[in-house]
TrEMBL record:
Residues 48-63 have a biased composition (Pro residues). Pfam families: 3D (PF06725), MltA (PF03562). This is peptidoglycan lytic exotransglycosylase. PANTHER family: MEMBRANE-BOUND LYTIC MUREIN TRANSGLYCOSYLASE A. Keywords: Cell wall biogenesis/degradation, Lyase. GO terms for biological process: cell wall organization; peptidoglycan catabolic process; peptidoglycan turnover. It comes from Ottowia testudinis. One of its GO terms (molecular function) is hydrolase activity, hydrolyzing O-glycosyl compounds.
Length: 404
């Protein structure tokens, strides 16, 4: 650039002094340009702009939620019809301590279906929330539906079940002679397998059962109760004299039909009205000659597998059909063609045994649990739960809580 300026000066030859002045001016101009360039190269560059922040996950709503959002159409299931309602229809909803039910909901989130899986992160975060915060979250995220039968209106039915707890022995000995079995090796080779009576009387059936004994109880009626309930806890006396608590979990059946031993006593004219386990035991004590027929009246046999019970496992029941551990007072068995597993349900039942208005989780099923408004309430384990379950038979209303 300096050279270009010199070449475009006057065409006449300049004097020596003029040439010196021009060279000084050019030198000063060149020095200034070099200094500017050096400063520019040494300037501190600004840091790059940070990447845009990711949007924060919205917090679960905890404030009051209006009960006025659109409720949408009814939903048809294979064995039920769900009618949308307002939250105000659910009796006792504002009074339930829903934090008791949250443990059962978190259990369901161990194996959630596709409908409820997206909500599980919020369910877990609300595990330490207050009942009011949990209720407000449900009102914002869920829509209640009243469960109705597909045909003519009919009254629902609530029964109850429990996990029995008995003393047992690892091997047969005086006072412990009622066997419980793991699945025998030939179980899959014959369908249905031998009946209960055949298993006790036919030599070939007894031979195939040999070695499959998992425990021995003191009372054959206790063994039948454990088989009907499908699982139980046993305080097991080991061969070395030690004792430990184990769970005998459901592992299969002989695929024979279930028949009610209580109904057999009624048909024999031995039992009237009190079809509960205390009533059945009293009848058998008064009629010991009926015991064998009572036991054989139900051809179905249930087989078990043994599971250790850690202190944590002991706080929950056995695994239900959903594949998660049941929570006393907050898990129910349902007809999965009416209510899918893992669904939160509002339950209302009033009767002589209990007045229940509470949040429960549909986590199990049973052979007798069929129909739209039908549920079996898991009462827990032990004698007190067994007494409750044996007497429970009340009218029932159900509402499913389904994502909006």
């Amino acid at each position: 650039m300096v050279h270009h300026t010199i070449s475009n000066s006057s065409s006449s030859a300049p004097s020596a002094s003029s040439r010196i002045r021009v060279m000084k001016r050019a030198s000063r101009f060149l020095g200034a340009a070099l200094i500017v360039g050096m400063l520019a190269s040494c300037a501190v560059k600004p840091p790059p702009a940070p990447p845009p922040a990711l949007p924060a996950e919205p917090a679960p709503p905890t404030g009051p939620v209006a009960d006025s959002s659109p409720i949408g159409p009814a939903i048809q299931r294979a064995r039920s019809r769900w009618v949308p309602v307002r939250w105000a229809e659910l009796p006792g909803f504002e009074q339930d301590d829903t934090s008791d039910a949250w443990n059962a909901w978190i259990k369901s989130c161990e194996r959630p279906g596709p409908t409820f899986a997206p909500l599980c992160s919020e369910v877990r975060r609300l595990s330490l929330g207050t009942p009011d915060e949990q209720r407000n979250w449900m009102k914002a995220r869920l829509q209640p539906y009243r469960v109705e039968p597909l045909g003519a209106p009919s009254e629902g039915l609530l029964t109850s079940y429990f996990e029995p707890m008995f003393d047992g022995a690892r091997s047969a000995r005086p006072g412990f002679g009622a066997p419980l079995y793991r699945p025998p090796p030939t179980l899959a080779q014959r369908k249905p397998w031998y009946t209960r009576q055949e298993m006790e009387t036919l030599p070939e059936a007894r031979a195939q059962l040999a070695g499959s004994e998992i425990a021995f109880l003191a009372d054959p009626v206790d063994a039948l109760i454990l088989q009907i309930q499908g699982s139980g806890r046993v305080r097991m006396a080991e061969a070395d004299g030690s004792q430990r608590l184990v769970r005998l979990a459901f592992a299969g059946t002989n695929e024979q039909p279930y028949r009610s031993p209580g109904k057999w006593l009624i048909d024999q004219g031995l039992l009237r009205g009190d079809v509960t386990w205390p009533g059945i035991r009293g009848t058998l004590a008064a009629n010991p000659q009926a015991l064998q027929g009572f036991l054989w009246s139900n051809p179905r046999m249930v087989f078990f597998r043994e599971e250790p019970l850690s202190p944590l496992d002991a706080q929950f029941g056995p695994k239900g059909a959903q594949g998660v551990a049941l929570t006393p007072g907050r898990s129910i068995a349902v007809d999965p063609q009416s209510i899918p597993y893992g669904t939160p349900v509002w339950l209302s039942s009033q009767g002589p045994v209990a007045n229940l208005q509470r949040l429960v989780m549909a986590q199990d099923t049973g052979n007798a649990i069929v129909g739209a408004v039908r549920a079996d309430y898991f009462a827990g384990w032990g004698a007190e739960a067994g007494d409750f379950a044996g007497r429970m038979k009340q009218p029932l209303k159900l509402w499913v809580l389904w994502p909006r």
